Amino acid sequence: MTDRSPRLAPPVGQAPRYGTDPVRDAWLLHFMTENNLEHSIAPEKNASPEQLRFMVSLAPEEIYVPCSDAMFSHLISERADPLVVAEYDGRLARIGRLIDDYVSDPYTAVKIRTLCDLKYRQALVKPTLIPSRLAKRLCTIFLTQSGLDDPHRERKRLYNRRAFSFIQGETFRTMLYACPSELPGCRAIPELRFALDMLELKRLLLLGSMPGIWDGRSAVPGNDALERALAAFPADFSRLEEMLDPRRGQGGLKILYLPDAAGGILFDLLAVRALLRLGHRVIVAVKDGFYYDAPTIWDADTDPILDTALAGAHFLTDPRVTKNALLQVMRESPLTVISDGTRERLNLYRVSVTFSRAWKEADLVMARGPLNHRRLIETSHLFTRDVVSFHGDGAGGLRFDFKPRAPGARSFSEADITAKADEIIAGMRAAKAAGRSVMFYSAIIGSIPGQTRTAIELVTAFVANLRDKLPGTSIINPAEHFEEGMDADDLMFMWEKVQRSGLIDVWRFQTHFDIEKSFGLLGRAVPPVWAGKDATFSTGCTKEMRIALSMQSRQPELQIIGPDPEKFLRRREYGVGKFCDAGIDCR
After folding, report:
1. CB atoms within 10 A of CB 501
2. Which of 279, 284, 321, 285 is nearest to 493 (CA)?
3. Which one of 255, 294, 300, 520 has the fewest beta carbons within 10 angstroms of its own beta carbon?
4. Is 353 left (phi over 0), alpha (psi -120 to 50) or beta?
5. What is the DSSP string of 3-28?
């Protein structure tokens, strides 16, 4: 077959996208489906485009590829690229070592090895499979056929014991807490205190990148090695220092921290404690199940050392936590532990809703390890949050990279959204003080794919008409308070604060008569897609009906006007980052 890679490859430094070449579009769809990453085909497994946009800044028609740019360029060659084959060989060999070490029954061992070899050979026929996806498939075969849930459990406990033993020793205390040879120049004690905090953080990041401390395969580094590494510390660290400095007067950061492996995680958790001491809040994201030496959400249950290192942390195990619940946990718990929802290398298509929301709510993502580095730094994709990646450079030093968030990525903090809600509530109070009643109008905004602009026109026209008819009523039109960049999570968080203020006298839900009237006000016929629609079609309105009923139980005088509340119960929760039902494709 003719090699078409020049036609398929995106320009250097650009992410792949649809709509520029029909052959490339077909190949990209083939690539996504072969890797089982296409949301429309497997929505129960893969993140929706909206959920991905919590984490990755994507232009129209751009697709996220969960591998480095270098790997993607090899995969599109449409032939058995030597680098790809070598990666496949490495994944097969790693599974082979697991079989040798943990499967004692010869019959079972041959069965697993043969099945993995068949999957490996299938991948070689048309090598478009990302090597980590092949590794996930082989690992799943091993776990399901061997009956083991975590063959590395004891190994990880051993690494943590060795790291803990080192941390308890005098050598560690000397390396971590020794005064610098020259005190940094400073004008005030807070400046000196912060400089020492950063020195401690640097040392912990370095020590966590020295596997000789816990894996037993190399010598334990001494203080001289640490000092040499500190002297050559990467310049990009200064950008992290600037963000972490509590004197900048913007309050503590929310940090999503991605550790790498057992042993090293103990140094990561000491670094996390240093971040907490500076006033920041941290979410540590680990794996959901076995992925070799990577720590999992369940490891603390069987490893007393890790359990002690995580003392006081809140374990959030709900994989689909809401924005409100996540923010509540973060307010109450400076240190939270979650699962990323996967048993593989960082793959934003497969991460849990909770992980996606943690990413979205974070100000900064800190990621350890070369594998995270490949997924976050060695890619042309830009992300919605500032990303810091760090790992050992192989020569006793530290590789440290800072990737700023995409220029167009905008985030609304809890304080931002609360301020908008408070502004609306203040207007409601002023209206009631002036003797006016307050009406809230709940209507379809984005629940019909491709009709958001029309929906806003309809509700705006209808509310304007209502205001003419009801001059003594202050009518809240949610469409008037939308701000570019706010997604459904942000809006529902804001409106719930408004709706639970106790200031609403009449809560009106859009009916199909309202929609027909609105089109009439606009001088247009009702299109088929709008025929028969009402607020029950909107999952946002469904959530609001539940809030309205709960408020009515506390305020019996609250009037609810619109479709029968029972008709709303057929709807599901609104999708992640969407304005429509989770069961409806909004693209």
Report:
1. 16
2. 321
3. 520
4. alpha
5. --HHHHSPPTT---BSSS-HHHHHHH
Q: How far, in Å, CA of 396 to CA of 222, rounded?
A: 11
pLDDT tens for 450-467 read: 787 898 999 999 999 999
Main-chain dihedrals φ then ψ at residue 378, nearest 5 degrees: -85, 45
CA-wise closest residue to 19 among 70, 59, 48: 59
**What is the percent of the chain with per-residue pLDDT over 90, rounded to a whole number?**
59
3-state helix/strand/coil string of 186-231: CCCHHHHHHHHHHHHHHHHHHHCCCCHHHHCCCCCCCHHHHHHHHH
User: Given the DSSP bridges, would you call strands 56-57 and 382-383 parallel, antiparallel or unpaired?
Assistant: antiparallel
Query: What amino acid occupies position 128?
Result: T
Domains of the chain: 5-146 (no CATH), 153-403 (3.40.50.10880), 414-570 (no CATH)
- Cα–Cα distance measured from residue 322 to residue 183, given in angstroms and rounded to the nearest whole number: 47
The dihedral built from the CA positions of residue 126, 129, 130 and 134, taken in this order, carries a sign that is negative
Q: Please give the C-alpha separations between residue 452 and each of 40, 316, 516, 579, in angstroms, as whole numbers.
A: 21, 34, 17, 9
Residue 301 identity (one-letter amino acid): D
Q: Give the model's pLDDT for residue 517.
A: 95
Do the beta carbons of residue 341 and residue 349 sit within 8 Å?
A: no
34 and 28 in contact (C-beta within 8 Å)?
no
Distance in angstroms (rounded) separating the CA atoms of residues 96 and 457: 61
**pTM to 2 decimal places:** 0.77
Q: Between β-strands 254-258 and 281-286, what pairing exists: parallel, antiparallel or unpaired? A: parallel
Mean residue pLDDT of the chain comes to: 87
Three-class HEC string of 443-474? CCCCCCCCCHHHHHHHHHHHHHHHHHHCCCEE
- State the alpha helices, DSSP H only, in 35-182: 49-52, 69-75, 82-102, 106-125, 131-146, 153-168, 170-177
Q: Which two tokens stand for residue 242?
A: 């600037």
Structure tokens at 300: 């603390």
Return the residue matching tokens 């995580």: 310
CB 400 within 8 A of CB 236: yes
d(C-alpha 550, C-alpha 544), whole Å: 10
- CA 43, distance to chain mean position in Å, is 17
- Token output for 451: 């009709």
Cα angle 84, 365, 208 (rounded to 5 degrees) comes to: 75
Q: Which residues contact 150 (CB under 8 A, 6 or more apart)?
A: 289, 290, 296, 298
